[in-house]
């Protein structure tokens, strides 16, 4: 967005000089007027390099943006006035900029859905399609309400999962740090004493010394090699789709973790599908847009293949049943929804089930990971104590005898 250097006066006639971002001078005049200033003159400010682009809306900001629109529209405020108010009152600079751009485009004749569709980096095709359906049916506030509820649920699901994994991750990092400290500092201090005792060193002590020497002399390989391998693999996967597909497939096949991720992604896809079906979006389009909410290629392709079968004339449940990634409960509930004419309600039940299952699984994982890490820490410390104190004890025993 262009940046202007302006001169203005306040209510007391005092001259104010400053800089602000605006679409053009008329937009700048309106912004200053809301701040109690009257524009005298303005010119484009010099900037290093290109004009700064609008930062991408974060997930929480997207929810706040849509929630504010929904509240204002329910109150009878026009879209233009709601965006104008949002541009002038939001605490987020990104929200103010996005609202300003959208207001300008709508003032030029675009609909809200077209303005949203023109900013895919901030909203995406799913949001644009839902808003379009709301405008066509005259139920835009209701659609926004359901959309905000869905986005909030997705944020809460992600937050709960991260919160549940924070403690195990902290314990794992702590264990790793203690092991590194022992191997690089404590053990080398004791190696000289042990080797100078002049007796045969047990095999477990020699193993400890070898591991310690590896940490001391080859720490760059121990810590650097995994980082290099992971970074190179991710960079290659970003460019080579078959490799990315293989990695995503392997991730879904990972014991325990793969099952949790599968349920999380399925819950998001099916929740989006239910939302689009409920708001009147065609089933074919709903399935296509639902495939876009996940970055996992096997799941995305499974949804698109199911969509192709529906296009060919198969039922929705039959189309889903032919894919390995959709659990039997999904197929059963879709079949019930087809028979009762309430596919959206059936999908809501599936989403709730998957959500609860994810929470229970993550809780069990946390309960298992903690003692496993503690036992691992105990085994490592026990090995070090036995490897260090064993030779010392043997020497003292021989001296006493």
Low-pLDDT sequence parts: 48-52
Tell me the series of helices and strands, N- to C-terminal.
EEHEHHHHHHHHHHHHHHH
Q: Which topology of the largest domain does CATH recognise?
A: Receptor-associated Protein
**Spatial sequence of strands, sheet with the most strands:** 2-1-3
* Mean of pLDDT: 82
CATH architecture of the largest domain: Up-down Bundle
Q: What's the CATH C level of the largest domain?
A: Mainly Alpha
Report the biggest beta sheet as strand number plus sense, adding barrel if it closes.
Answer: 3 strands, antiparallel
Strand content: 5-15%
- Say which CATH homologous superfamily of the largest domain is assigned: Type II secretion system (T2SS), domain F
Please count the beta strands (DSSP E, at least 2 residues each). Answer: 3
| Class inferred from helices and paired strands | mainly alpha
Shape field? flat
Helix content: over 70%
The helix tally amounts to: 16
- Report how far the terminal alpha carbons are from each other: 86 Å
Question: What Rg is obtained from the alpha carbons, in whole angstroms?
Answer: 30 Å
Total domain units: 3
Highlighted features:
Receptor-associated Protein, 3 domains, mainly alpha, 16 helices, 401 residues, single chain
Compact description:
This protein is mainly α. 75% of the residues lie in helices and 5% in strands.
